[in-house]
Amino acid sequence: MSGERHDGRIVVVGASLAGLRAAETLRDEGFTGSLTMVGEEPHPPYDRPPLSKGVLLGRVSAQDAGLPSRRDIDAQWKLGVRARGIDPVAKQVLLDDGEQLPFDRLLIATGTRARAWPESAEAALDGVLTLRTRDDADRLAERLDAGPRRVLVIGAGFTGSEIASACRERGLEVTVAERGPAPLVGALGGTLGAFAARLQRAHGVDLRCGVTVTALNGDNGRLTGAEFSDGSRIDADVAVVALGAVRNTEWLAGSGLAAGPRGLACDAGCRAFDMYGIVTDDVFVAGDVARFPHPLFEYQMLSLEHWGNAVAQAEVAAHNMVSPGPLRRPHLTVPAFWSSQFGLNIKSVGVPTFSDQVVIAQGSLREGRLIAVYGYRGRVTAAVSVNRAKWLEHYQHLIETAAPFPPGPGAADLLDTGPPVSSDVPDPHHLSHGPTVALTGHLPDRRLTLVRQGD
């Protein structure tokens, strides 16, 4: 192994899950040089999934959401300071406080931030919140503890739906406004979206789909309510803006890297592309901010906002940063995520939006325990379980081996089905929140066909 790659200076921008796991892997793989961790937030790396689940329910405080360290990384930490750019010629990271950090290799793991409400005066009203950071979760939990009369959740993606679930579990009145036809539709398609809509309404959510919030109203600087595109209005003293995530790439303007609103493009080995599409050898990227090709999905550029992907990609990036070419490895992990809401555990493997058909292969929509299997051009590309997660490992194997779709009898309860029912997957560009998986190359046929089990 090349000795010179195990010393020198490595800078990690993004004191995040991906940044921390990459740093730990660098040390595990024998990197002995200087390691600097840069983080915009003042807190050490912490875990985000509990913020929209346990923290909002008051079961755990945001301060307890720290990430356990696998090992000491012997790093210099620069927290509470923002990176404002890269000098690619001098090989320096430029910080907001004026410091210039020299590097031999750089890992960019700046992740995403919550998309803000577009009207700045309305966004500044007391009671208008987002949920992405530890501080966000603290503020929202405090508001929910105070017992608001009604909470408005704007956007019914996974975060918005989990917030609505927490509100109902607390006994709070909640209205959810979703521009698309159903909750979760941008990530899971229309069939499970319709199921999610029924679920939310059964739990007492005032769910309004196909509408947008046209104004947030206030009085003396405090939120009082909202107006909708259908002419209706509500009173509310808390509004949570859950309109998806924005990738933190603006600071890379002028760096010469292939960074934009969809993320920072890289190869399957996590090496960043420059603006001409040429791969770099000293700048790597991992986590939510990365766009990378995946052979299982026709080498389209994937952007993922998943916990497991951040960890797996960080480990690959770190390995490749200290390994010579022949020993480098690709990031080929099958995307996977989970969500807990309204008493259900939803888990997914693969990319549900990379599909032209879907079948309920086990269970049924009616019983609320099921596995939906997605296919594209006759092969399995994704599976989503609802309270039936133990089967997902089997479907992951089908995805990895490009097994035929629909799956054979060994993978399903039964496939003696009625005629297919068409269901639209909305174009992500027309949704008010982004899916947690974005395919940014050629999109397949956007029609999903559901084969039902008589439910």
TrEMBL record:
Q: Which residues belong to any copy of the FAD/NAD(P)-binding domain?
A: 9-314
Q: Does the keyword Amino-acid biosynthesis apply?
A: no
Q: Which UniProt keywords apply?
A: FAD, Flavoprotein, Oxidoreductase
Q: Where is this region: Disordered?
A: 418-438
One Pfam family hit: Reductase_C
Reductase C-terminal domain location: 337-407
Cofactor(s) listed = FAD
Extract the Gene3D superfamilies matched here. 3.30.390.30, FAD/NAD(P)-binding domain (3.50.50.60)
Tell me the superkingdom of the source. Answer: Bacteria
Task: Give yes or no: UniProt keyword Flavoprotein.
Answer: yes
Q: Identify this protein by name.
A: FAD-dependent oxidoreductase
Q: Which organism is it from?
A: Streptomyces blastmyceticus
Q: Which lineage ranks, top first, belong to the organism behind this chain?
A: Bacteria, Bacillati, Actinomycetota, Actinomycetes, Kitasatosporales
